[in-house]
Amino acid sequence: MSAIAVEGLAVSLGGRPVLHDVDLTVAGRELVGLVGPNGAGKTTLLRALLGLVRPAAGTITVAGARTGRRRRRGIGYVPQRHEVAWDFPISVEQMVLTGRTGLLGLGRRAGVEDWTAVADALARVHLADLRRRPVGELSGGQRQRVLVARALAVRPAALLLDEPYTALDMPTQELLAGLFAGLAADGTAVLMTTHDLLGALGSCTRLVLLNRTVVAEGPPARLRDPEPWMRTFGVGEASPLVTILRVA
């Protein structure tokens, strides 16, 4: 069974159609790259998976549940770093613990299971030695790994990543790419939006080309034809995108 299953999804925001007729599955052990131009609906699709926007049509199933808190519990989410208040006076381990807020419930203090999950997540992203450091003192790459650890603290069946490589140097991108590949290999279903097309071609097990609907999908080796990419991004044969496909 797929960890993520979307059928016939349509989403409108402010009365404006954003997504229509979206069909998508992501199974455990898959690292799926969701690529498309700005405004294609990539982040909206992630928000729909999280239950943050209401579909106009279609169904979404995550970790065996369709709606409500049970669906959210099966998902780890890594937002773009600029969406986080890094000047808030909180340590690395406290930030990671906030990922379990939905599991703790109102008024319940973190217990042994929660702190164990935090420690495991920090070890997975190689930040255990920085667990007591204030998050405001971290580098950009360290902050991104903290966000990944926060998502992993819920022990998710599915991990959603929104542009995880933005503004990171190449060594940090390589470290994260290896981490995401390892999570997928261990059974997590990973869905990642990205503008790093060359990196996606090299690291993802499958790509989904999205522009308000799914234009094409498949393993990178089967998506070398420029035509669906040109339709997705609205570019011509002289585009650097086509060049990337030819040299990748």
Bin the strand percentage.
15-25%
Global morphology:
globular
Distance between the termini: 32 Å
Rg, rounded, reads 18 Å
Major sheet summary line: 6 strands, mixed
What is the helix content?
A: 25-40%
Tally the helices: what do you get? 10
N-to-C SSE string, H for helix and E for strand: EEEHEHEHHHHEHEHEEHH
- The poorly predicted ranges are none
Estimated structural class: alpha/beta
Average pLDDT reading? 91
Please tally the β strands and state the result.
9
Strand order, largest beta sheet: 5-6-7-3-8-9
What does this structure look like?
The protein has 248 residues and is an alpha/beta fold. Helices cover 36% and strands 23% of the residues. The protein is globular, with a radius of gyration of 18 Å.
Give the SSE map.
Blueprint: E1 4-13, E2 16-26, E3 31-35, H1 42-49, E4 57-62, H2 68-73, E5 75-78, H3 92-97, H4 101-104, H5 112-124, H6 140-152, E6 158-162, H7 170-185, E7 189-193, H8 197-203, E8 206-210, E9 214-218, H9 226-233, H10 240-247
Parallel strand pairs: 3-7, 3-8, 5-6, 6-7
Antiparallel strand pairs: 1-2, 1-4, 8-9
Helix pairs in contact: 5-6
Keywords:
alpha/beta, six-stranded mixed sheet, single chain, three-stranded antiparallel sheet, 248 residues
Summarize this entry quickly:
With 248 residues, this protein is an alpha/beta fold.
